[in-house]
């Protein structure tokens, strides 16, 4: 799941507890981000606890290929407390600033491209995906792996039916002929005959 998440995101928000330090899941997340070549913003959480030691944590991290700016690296680190709500705006601002520096922009026009987050049988084959480019609309013809579809129904993360989905938007999609694997790329094609040709 971590690897899949790193493949479909533009920035990894790495959350590490200031009182626990580097854990196995921290290392897995760093490896996934590095493999996917996705930049990291570090959120050092639980800074409200008396045993929290964010500086000790930042000193440990370069060994694991995570060097914060104040230790000679290029990773922004923000001390937060999710429980108390402390410094969450600063974390959001650092993430937005990095997105602006990287000039992260998706093209809402042109053919749809997205990556499958999960796929399961529910109301027929259902796929959850994040739009990476283009605008997905009801009736669009899509291909993935050896399957194709005409979008019958789409819904947002709250289960509300929607008629279109824009870049960076997670969306549930119903209409696939068959299930396929998480991580597969989904592409829009111009017609049903073209879809049949692509998956043949």
Descriptive report:
Residues 1-112 form the Tr-type G domain. This is Tr-type G domain-containing protein. It comes from Rhinolophus ferrumequinum. Keywords: GTP-binding, Nucleotide-binding. One of its GO terms (molecular function) is GTPase activity. With 200 residues, this protein is of the alpha+beta class. The chain folds into 2 domains: 2-101, P-loop containing nucleotide triphosphate hydrolases (Rossmann fold, 3-Layer(aba) Sandwich), CATH 3.40.50.300; 113-199, Translation factors (Elongation Factor Tu (Ef-tu), domain 3). Helix content is 24%, strand content 34%. It has 5 helices and 12 strands. It has helices at 2-7, 24-36, 54-60, 88-101, 192-199; strands spanning 12-17, 40-45, 76-79, 113-122, 124-133, 136-137, 141-144, 147-155, 161-162, 164-165, 170-176, 185-189. Strands 4-5-11-8-7-12 form a 6-stranded antiparallel barrel. A 3-stranded parallel β-sheet has the order 1-2-3, with helices on both faces. Helix 3 links the parallel strand 2 and strand 3 (76-79). The longest helix has 14 residues, at 88-101. The protein is elongated, with a radius of gyration of 20 Å. It starts with a helix and ends with a helix. The model has no long low-confidence stretch (mean pLDDT 84).
């Amino acid at each position: 799941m971590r690897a899949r998440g790193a493949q479909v995101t533009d920035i990894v928000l790495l959350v590490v507890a200031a009182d626990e330090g580097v854990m196995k899941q921290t290392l897995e997340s760093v490896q996934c981000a590095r493999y996917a070549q996705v930049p990291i913003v570090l959120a050092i959480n639980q800074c409200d606890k008396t045993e929290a030691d964010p500086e000790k944590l930042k000193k440990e991290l370069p060994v694991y290929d995570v060097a914060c700016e104040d230790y000679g690296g290029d990773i922004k680190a923000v001390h937060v407390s999710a429980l108390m709500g402390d410094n969450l705006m600063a974390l959001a601002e650092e993430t937005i600033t990095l997105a602006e520096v990287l000039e992260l922009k998706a093209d809402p026009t042109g053919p749809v491209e997205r990556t499958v987050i999960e796929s399961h049988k529910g109301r027929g084959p259902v796929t959850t995906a994040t739009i990476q480019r283009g605008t997905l609309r009801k009736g669009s013809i899509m291909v993935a792996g050896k399957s194709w579809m005409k979008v019958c129904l789409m819904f947002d993360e709250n289960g509300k039916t929607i008629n279109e989905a824009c870049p960076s938007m997670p969306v549930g999609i119903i209409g696939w002929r068959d299930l396929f694997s998480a991580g597969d790329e989904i592409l829009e094609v111009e017609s049903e005959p073209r879809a049949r040709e692509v998956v043949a």
